[in-house]
Amino acid sequence: MRILSSFVEKGSRFYKDHPRYSKLLVVAAVSGGSLLAYSSSNSSHHVTGDSESKKKRIVVLGTGWGATSYLKNLDLASYDVQVVAPRNYFAFTPLLPSVTCGTVEARSIVEPIRNIIKRRGASATFWEAECFKIDAKNKKVHCRPVQKSESKDKEEIIMDYDYLIVAVGARVNTFNTPGVEENCHFLKEVEDAQRIRRSVIDCFEKASLPNISEEEKKKHLHFVVVGGGPTGVEFAAELHDFVKENLSKLYPKVKDFVKITLLEAGDHILTMFDKRITAFAEEKFKRDVIDLKTGSMVVEVTNNAIRTKERSSGEVSSVPYGMAVWSTGIGTRPLISEFMQQIGQTTRRVLATDEWLRVQGSDCIYALGDCASINQRRIMEDIAVIFSKADKDNSGKLTVKQFQDVITDICERYPQVKLYLKNKKLKGVSDLLKDSEGKDNSTELDIEKFKSALSQVDSEMKMLPATGQVAAQEGVYLANCFNQMAEREKNPVGPPRIRGEGRHRFHPFRYKHLGQFAPLGGEQTAAQLPGDWVSIGHSSQWLWYSVYASKQVSWRTRTMVVSDWMRRFIFGRDSSRI
């Protein structure tokens, strides 16, 4: 009896010291058997912060370019960081077209997010789950595990946050075209690239069967790419090289039936590039016998044909195909659509943030990458307030010197001013006044002349492109802001507040374009770098190799990608269907 009493006393102390084990119920039977059960009646699991820790909790949604860049640069030791994403790795998406044809293996371009966190030498928790609701009012996110459990308990995970970083990316935009979701391949994820690779081999194997007619062979080996942007163009070029260099030798009896078609609704492909690159790409595709159809809109996709409408004539035609890849831009994820309704941004395609990447209407939610865009303020909305702040003597007029004193802060707060000066080739304030007045005889400006001088500036406002380069820079910027948060609360370094007193804590985000590439097949790449520098050809291909190898997130992936390129040069691409 004394032994039992001692056991109960020790057990009681254990549960008091370790309350998280209080749900464990041990039932012992006289026969010596035992039953261990975990009591849980809730269908959700609430993850709260450590009450003993004074660290602010940051919940990061996503493991793409923006989220990974943020995690790589954030001082993890200063915060309680929780990462939630349906995939437990970062994927180097610019090389997805290479994965579709075996130029690079899928595992060579992915890095486990836990490895990235571990290399930082600080603690952060990763949850493989998908967020389906953001509760901004109560500062909670609702998630579901990706791996379905047999038990229905704990299907929902609720997490508290002090700061929320939304970096969930975007999904493919089908423009509600009938049949696209059911019949087309997309190229957004690693799994998409792997499915395309298997589908290409399937088409060749089907066409090689002895009971297949010539018409069926033509159908099976007709590959259609919808979308003339960088992804669509690069995939078409990769597929052409795969067929020409490898598959034509393995399937010699059906090689003459292969046809690659690229459909683009606009007048040209690669419209975001220099016109010289666009012209070269279109000419090269003609030489490579890639059927390029511009001004052709897809109106329906069935399981064996694509219906298109010519924009110029309105003529509708139907084309049989073996495989179709849809690459026409990005759409909004359901999570973001629901959240935008919650915060009153119902008329937008993506989340609107301010210049500090903070979601408009929220103080503690930030968004970056493809799921958000910066809603840059127009200078004409604040023109009266700017004039009032510059007019320190309340005379109702500004001298040129007063205008010069305020122009630096204006340029930082409104980047379109700097772009306007650059595009108009204006050197400074005096040139801006000349441009607005037509002559330089004004020594003072009233509010109307001030408005006139800046009236055309807002025409230079542009949205940032939805690219990995933009998301990565946003991640670095936001991480640096969080690293300096405590210091900048006391000593702000941003521009003066236009509507309010004092200064902003940080300088606003500014994107610096570092250039872009467009691989065109045949070991030729088009490169467009800052300063209107354009290079096309084999030398640009080697530059592409160098840049993409250096941009890998680890030495492991860097080594694997380079070895894949070397393997392809020596042995060719693998055509196994795995």
From TrEMBL:
InterPro entries named in the record: EF-hand-dom_pair, EF_hand_dom, FAD/NAD-bd_sf, FAD/NAD-binding_dom, NDH-2, NDH2-like_C
GO CC annotation: mitochondrial inner membrane; peroxisome
Membrane topology: Peripheral membrane protein
UniProt keyword list: Calcium, FAD, Flavoprotein, Membrane, Metal-binding, Mitochondrion, Mitochondrion inner membrane, NAD, NADP, Oxidoreductase, Peroxisome, Transit peptide
Principal cellular location given in the protein's record: mitochondrion
Keyword Oxidoreductase: yes
GO terms of molecular function: calcium ion binding; NADH dehydrogenase (quinone) (non-electrogenic) activity
Highest taxon in the source lineage: Eukaryota
Compartments where found: Mitochondrion inner membrane; Peroxisome
Classification via PROSITE patterns: EF_HAND_2
Similarity comment: family membership: Belongs to the NADH dehydrogenase family.
Listed name of the protein: NADH:ubiquinone reductase (non-electrogenic)
Annotated organism of origin: Papaver somniferum (Opium poppy)
